[in-house]
Specification:
Elements (H helix, E strand, L loop, with lengths): L3 H8 L6 H21 L2 E7 L5 E7 L19 H13 L9 E3 L2 E12 L2 E11 L13 H14 L22 E5 L4 E4 L1 H10 L10 H8 L8 H7 L6 E5 L4 E11 L2 E11 L1 H41 L3 H24 L6 E3 H15 L6 E7 L3 E3 H22 L5 E10 L2 E8 L13 H12 L4 E6 L6 E8 L3
Parallel strand pairs: 12-14
Antiparallel strand pairs: 1-2, 1-5, 3-4, 4-5, 6-7, 6-10, 8-9, 9-10, 11-13, 14-15, 15-17, 16-17
Amino acid sequence: MHTLTDLAQAAARSNLHHEDLDWLHLILADWQVVSDLAGADLVMWVRTHDGRFLAIAHARPATASTIHMDDVVDMYIQPSRQTLLEEAMETRQIASPPGARWMGTYSMSEVAIPVVRSGQAIAVITRETNLSSPGFLGGAETWTPHAADILCKMITRGDYPYDATPVSVTHGQPRVMDGALLLDSEGVVQEVTPNAVSCLRRLGIRQNPVGRLLIEDVTDVLKQDQTIEETLAVVVTGKAAWRAEVESSRATVTMRALPLLEGDKRVGAVLLTRDVSEMRRRELELMTKDATIREIHHRVKNNLQTVSALIRLQARRSDSEEVRAALSEAERRVTTIATVHAALSQNVDETVDFDEVAKKVLHLAVVLAKTNQQVSVDVRGHFGKVNADAAQALATVLTELVTNSVEHGYRDYGGLVSIEAERNGRRLEVTVSDDGLGIEPDKAKSGLGTQIVSTVVAGELAGTITWDRRKHGPGTIVRVNANLDN
């Protein structure tokens, strides 16, 4: 796919404006259909400041052998062929040489199609067909090139690509190779490829569609409770350049209509079809699996909150201050894990935005910490997206570190605990600093909380952790370096 940036770089050597580039980009987004219908290579050329023609895009057909084995983009056209392109631009009409041209051991036909916008030719597309190549459409080669001829003429009038074509493309976009039908102006089938016959058969349309009004056959096979939407009707009759999805009890088929216009008159349409039954089944399975995973996280969160409430109740009933303190710490840790599961229950990809999680768990850590002092928490930097396992570990580590700072650093006065995160791909560096009493180096890892942190950082985050006293002023600074999977 060629982007606007690619076109802008190539067109820097031409006189094209931004509006011209936008139009060329629309053509490139959909010109594979023309290439496949024609069974021909398409090359887009723009005139450069020095009068030569530069190739800025190339499409190879999926329905025939390509002419060019090498990439022609960023190459200039041979001087012997330039006259044909100049004629097409000057006349704004399709130009063709008198006979076939030989390329090594095979012959090819070539036509030059001017790309017209607002009455001006802004580029030329050469349609180059390998005359020695067998077609891959099973007998459709007699009508698909004619349909391509009409689309090419529409390009010269500025009627193609269609203004009404949706920009968004869903999975299962129908292609010429997947199945194609030729409809007349009333929606009656004139021609059909074998793959299109197979698509219709899977829907439940058994009779030969040629000579029949396709909308009637499609209506007969729809599910009984499915209504005929206006979008489906105009697509199946070929009246609008749109896409629709037909779902029967047997299969799901996407359809796309390409109206064929001669001036203001619609003379027919090409209808592309594609059986996406298996694709939709897999998507449904993934959606069901995602919903199940979210529901599991939701239930785990609820269960953990219940456990937390039971621990809190037990702590209140205990007469031992030591038991109450131990149960309070257990409650805090369970609540931290529940917070992560609550975040995971909102996503489908088993990742969480840890910036939001960090705010919740750190606020919770301060609220539940045993202190009578006023302590604030300041979070800076960016944690980014973190997978489920790493989120659990990281939440536990931060909660323990902040709790330690609040409970042991601010016995006599309040202060500020700062958390700064720096994310670089898989690498995450988190610094937790406070202006409390500070630590004694030989007691940095003596408590249960710091032992938990050290184990989690090394085992689940594949990282390292260090404790130090602050160089300027009282307090402690802890640095955690973690390796994340995403």
